[in-house]
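[Automated response] Your request has been received and processed.

Submitted sequence:
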Amino acid sequence: MKFIPQIPIKKFLKLSNYNKISWITSIVIIVFIIIELTGSLINSGNNEFFIDDKNELGKKVFNSSVIKNFYNGLSSTPYNYLTTFKSDKPDNCFRVFLIGESSLSGWPYSKEQSIDRKLNKLFGHYIENEKIEIITISIAGFNTSLACEIIPNLMKFKPDLIMLYTGHNEFYGYNGYTTIRSKSNLVLMDLMEKLLQKTGVLNSITYDKYRDDLEILLPFNADEQIITELQKEYYNIKNQYLSNIQKIISVCRENNIRLALTALSDNCLLPPIGVLNRKDDISADIIYNNARMALIRDGNQNTAVRLFKKSKDVDAFRLRIPENFIEDLKNISEQNDISIADINTEFTLNSPNNIPGNNLFMDYIHPNSEGLNILASAYAKIILTTFFEKNNYNAAIETTLNNNPVSKKDSVLAQERIERSHALIKLLNNSKYMNEVVVK
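Generated structure:
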């Protein structure tokens, strides 16, 4: 290899220390470049966002191998639910992409409770005649930064409508608080990471994608950092979230694609996990207990609603989406004339005392079957309004959704997954999340 400096060993030993270091550095750089170029060529096929489906000729599917590129230290590819679609869009077909978090897949239930299956049942006649096509890309830990990576790659498949369900993983997902530990694109760095994990120097996340809730595990990837509204990281992530939404709107507009956002809801009746005891502020658990007293003892619904939301917002375990994120999302939707599925309001209106709780949720953020029906109903209204250019939504659709009971097998699976999530939360609740904060 002529481009590598040729130098006899004796001559090398006579060189000054500075020249020795320069010579060794140049060799290391050249070797590093060769490794990276070789690795890039080998892995280039794994970086395609969409690939040909192995089981169905003429169909595409999102490449699940890409997902792991956006997460650090996972023992397996994150849970995902990806449906196939025709490479060539059928004529006169209204193509809809549902893209977002694991709730779109029906998690913690099986895919039988997925939003696309509920919509397919509603639009059965149109689906069969290829008038409407509903495609799902549901990924555990999904956030707006990941959406910015994926959505531009959807355009070549000519979507008519993109429905985005995200907001719960902004702090701990891709490009969130984990930015400094995000997945490397360098082959050599990844090899070093794997070596450190095997030797125990760097911890990896032991993850069972079938049973484990990645959203609960992701905080481990952020070294269990507590994030409060007093930290600059909180505002940086909020600004990034809103900026990402604007980028997605711009991409869709440039390609003349309709976009529908989703204002998410959370279980407000569950206690906060990340509790702080600081002299200058009231801790989340005290606010939560005050909310319960306002509701149960005093019967003051308005005060209870306000305090339950406040308790959620000051929970330093940043899994549930803060209320000001939702408010800003609604403002962006209104300012840009973008459709929005206001699940936040729908869940509130369908909950006792206007406080979403276990009546619509399985845990902190994942809707139960009734909650998933409300989500599917909201999406159906937008599809109908967009596809038919009028809202001919009727009671028959509600009946169809409600006639989709959860099987016993699905109930057992959901309960198993939720129990594992609760066990993880219990571990977190006994860890750094109690009474500790890192202010930077």
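Summary generated for your ticket: The longest strand covers residues 132-139. Strands lie at 50-52, 59-62, 80-82, 85-86, 94-100, 132-139, 161-165, 258-263, 339-342.
If you did not submit this request, please reply to this message.
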